[in-house]
Amino acid sequence: MSGEKIKVIHVDIGGCEGCSVSFLRSLPLISDKCAAKTLYTVDSIDELLENDVDIAFVSGSVCLNDEETIETLKSVRRRAKILIAFGSCASFGGVTRFSRGGQEPKPSHRTFAPLNQVVEVEYSIPGCPPPPQTVNSFMIAYQRQIVTQLAFFSKLSEFKKLSGFDLIDDIVLTGLCMGCGACEVSCPTGAIKLIERRPNLIVEKCIRCGTCYVRCPRAMQLLIRGVKK
Amino acid sequence: MSVTVGERITRIGGEAKLYIRCDGDTVLYGLFICEAPVRGFEKLLVGKNPFFAVEASMRICGICHTSHGIACCEAIEHAIGIYPPRDGLLLREACGILNRIQSHILHQFLILNDFFKKGFKKILLKNLFKALEFCNRLLSRIGGAPTHPPNITIGGLMKGVPEARMGDIQRDLGELEKLVREYVREFFLDDDKLSNKVDILREYNLELGKVASHMFYGDRFNINVEEVSVVHPMDLIENPISEELRGILAKSSALCALYRGKKVEVGPRSRMTIYRGFKGSTLYDLQRARVLEMELNIERLKEIFNEVDLSAPVRTGEIPLRKGSGIGVFEAPRGTLIHKVKLDDTGHIESYKVIVPTMFNIPVIGEAVRGIPKSMASVIPRLFDPCIPCAVHMVEVRT
């Protein structure tokens, strides 16, 4: 590809840093496709937040009680042509959906929401954390404009919540499950176990990351075809 | 006194600012203030099942995930009165050590720009990535994933390691050891490759009390958890506080921890000093201790893999969730990590408290910047590898 490389940044707005590390690990894979910067690699924060970029990967859910975080997110949105919710917290709220505030020294930080509740998000890449290879496959899809793959990430950006509970409701209880076991393999906490080739959700282990739903071939077929959830 | 607001710094694990007040070119005092949103894990866990607590507490941090998982399991096991089998504990320790090495490697990425002369960074960067991948593979093979490993659970480990996988594990460990020796030890301890900034770090001492509970794992009996107090950064200021300072301190979203009412250093240097007789009080020695600790950790991993019986059970057979309270202590990459839990009559969580190493180190960073040249102030927080979710700003404070 000739010309300038795609400008990519990664910004974390209050996640656990797992996604930041995952993005850092993806740098050797994507360095031939784009010029990527993260807070771990730059000397000054201005390098990240003060320039216009092609793609911004943002991880962490947004604390609705913290004006500064909301402002940072909005400023990234203004400067990025494409904004990607990177990781489950940014995509669906993830484990921070359970937050209820009340903790010192900032008891007012009560509500955490996915990015698409505050700004427009073009694509979502859920996972807790998404593996570095996913960043690479997204970048390949973006560079080559592989429509089916991009449509998948784009569809995910429309959801504000997805979890094991949705998988049970939409796929298992409706009889659509074919027992492939993709959900069991993909669950980052081991909250899903197949019993008689049907997923059983151990509810106390589900952290609402949505990975199982995203990996379920049936669920994705339905979503991409535009069936309403 | 000149007042410039401005230089903003990155490359630490967290969103924090360093406020400094200078006399000419020398820093008089500094305040390290974390400003990331509080996700409130302690409150989030109330009423939940202890198994959820393990998964959720691993998500407190994406860098020291395993350490949180282990400390949480230890606290709950203490509360319900169970003890994991020997081999489960050994493999759990291996996961914790791998997490520590993983975090130390990540830290090398963050300080590269400060530590090296030009010409060395590229090769180092390439090989650090390689070392990180070997470490991640090892943690995946034992813990189930390189981040937030799901095999860490109450009563030991979810799954043991199949005998057939041991060959791969030994091979990966050999590669990791080689990379750490050739690219961490040989680079970070070689004066010819290090930058001028390192020479400056060698000139400044930091001599505070040190706390560590174990060299490799963590031991609640080696520290008195009751003597750890948690205070707001505002309470640590002895002189009357100006309005501006009050405003800055009020922004802090992290509390500070003291041991026996005093500021103490936790982390690799504390562990090495207390358990291995490490000597060195300069700021550079913080990094030297970290490098030496990485090597020791690899040696310990070899010991564990030789000792562990892969055919033995790795998890307690019965896990009775019931009323009780417990304390879990683990030596996380950055220092002593404490989880305290209280379970109610039904075995659900009644209260939860986490004291992370960075809470001890926040006031220590403030001490460490005293007297150093202004241009070096931004380097100091990185030396401690504070873990706060990521931007440090440095702002001078008006009196």
Shape of chain A: globular
Spatial ordering of strands, largest sheet of chain A: 2-1-3-5-7
Question: What value does the average pLDDT of chain A take?
Answer: 91
Mean pLDDT of chain B: 89
What structural category arises from helix and sheet content of chain A? alpha/beta
Multimer state: heterodimer
Kindly state the number of beta strands of chain B. Answer: 13
Q: And the CATH topology of the largest domain in chain A? A: Rossmann fold
Shape of chain B: globular
Number of domains of chain A: 2
* pLDDT < 50 stretches of chain A: none
CATH superfamily of the largest domain in chain A: NADH:ubiquinone oxidoreductase-like, 20kDa subunit
Ends distance of chain B? 9 Å
Structure description:
The complex is a heterodimer of chains A (229) and B (399). With 229 residues, chain A is an alpha/beta fold. Helices cover 37% and strands 18% of the residues of chain A. In chain A, a hairpin with a 2-residue loop joins strand 8 (192-195) and strand 9 (198-201). Chain A is globular. Chain B has a single domain (2-310, 319-391), classed as Cytochrome-c3 Hydrogenase, chain B (Orthogonal Bundle). A four-stranded mixed β-sheet of chain B has the order 1-13-2-3. In chain B, strands 10-11-12 form a three-stranded antiparallel β-sheet. Chain B has a two-stranded antiparallel ribbon with strand order 4-5. In chain B, a hairpin with a 2-residue loop joins strand 2 and strand 3 (26-34). The longest helix of chain B has 30 residues, at 86-115. Chain B is globular, with a radius of gyration of 21 Å. Chains A and B meet through helix 1 of A and strand 1, helix 1, helix 2, helix 4 and helix 5 of B.
